[in-house]
Amino acid sequence: MLHSDAREELRTNGYALVPARQFPIDPELRPRVKELAHEWEHLETDRYLQNGSRFRERAYDRLFFLPRTGEIRLRPHQPYFQSESANDYAGGIRRDVAPLSRSTLHNPLLTRLLRSNFARFPVEDGRLDEPWDVQCHQFRIIGTPGEIGQPTPEGPHRDEVNYGAVHLMGRLNTTGGESQVYSQDKALLTEFCLTEQMDTMYWADQQVLHAVRPIRPQDAGRPAVRDVLIMGYKYSPGLQRFERV
Questions:
Q1: DSSP 19-43
Q2: Which CATH class is domain 6-235?
Q3: What distance in Å separates the CA atoms of residue 235 and residue 217, rounded to the nearest whole number?
């Protein structure tokens, strides 16, 4: 029922929320959640933040996905790019972002999430036999008394994909960080806070805009930390099968 419920919510509202307690993970994969979350301890500082800011760490890769068969292949690593119309903070720049670690890529939970997320999207049957480009991002946002953590410094925006998924991997000593959904004319439709590991938000990128409120520390003596795994799915007929060694 979760698949169909989320699919209908996405179709009707452009977003859906699946709390961690309702998110199905096979028992043999549950230990892999903490293993995957530990990978956020090894990210590199985002070098494309403005004014010398250091509130974001990240890694990124792209995957070839064929829905009908479930085939997944790692694509050659390349700089991350968004248009200026989608992101007026860092759009128009080819951003050289570190790739996902081999241990992240080899964690079976990652590929399970990729496939199970797609099962929730209201995709037409004719698009299941063509490849999709899946952009996989690890983000750590850090807030300190001297620097607010900004998950989306660009404000309400699109990711220039068809559908997206946000999985909360960790949240420590943090206030704020509410996920927001906006109409295309930037009217706030709803907001909610991902607080438990594996709380998940889905959105239809061509229907709505999304953003996240800044984070601050609860205890000023320690940083606020918010870790998320974001997967953006773009329908890409003709995408070639590559695999990086």
A1: -GGGS---GGGHHHHHHHHHGGGGP
A2: mainly beta
A3: 39
Instruction: Give tens-digit pLDDT for 143-184.
Output: 999 999 999 999 999 999 999 999 999 999 999 999 999 999
Residue 101: closest CA among 149, 57, 165, 131: 57
Least confident of 152-166, 215-229, 230-244: 230-244
In tens, the pLDDT along 176-218 reads 999 999 999 999 999 999 999 999 999 999 999 999 999 999 9
Domain ranges of the chain: 6-235
- Token pair belonging to 50: 């403005």
Closest CA to 65 of 138, 136, 130, 162: 130
pLDDT, average across residues 74-81: 87
For helices 108-118 and 30-38, give the axis angle rounded to 10 degrees. 110
226's enclosing H/E stretch is strand 224-235
| DSSP states of 175-194 | EE--EEEE-TT--EEEEE--
Nearest by Cα to 196 from 157, 223, 227, 221: 227
Model pLDDT, residue 245: 37
3-state secondary structure of 211: strand
Listed in sequence order, the residues at least 6 apart from 83 whose beta carbon sits closer than 8 Å to its beta carbon are 91, 92, 160
